[in-house]
Here is the input.
Amino acid sequence: MRFVDEDLVLEQPTYDGRPVPMLEQRFTPEEKLELLDYHPLFTGRCPQCEMPFDMKNPPSAHWECAHCGWVDNTL
Ligand SMILES: [Zn+2]
Here is the structure.
């Protein structure tokens, strides 16, 4: 991750050498920073109950917490 002209640029994230889905470009820099702070794609944990996700097999599109029922509807 790096900042270019004060805009947050997300580089292709990888986990265990495999690419993980990129964020769509419809987010503002502020929204991206919010996502970086709470989304399990970046934190590895459910933002609601903090149960860790299985980051070796992250969902490609639809994040859902089996523990508390949190569902991602932002990506
Ligand atoms: Zn949860």
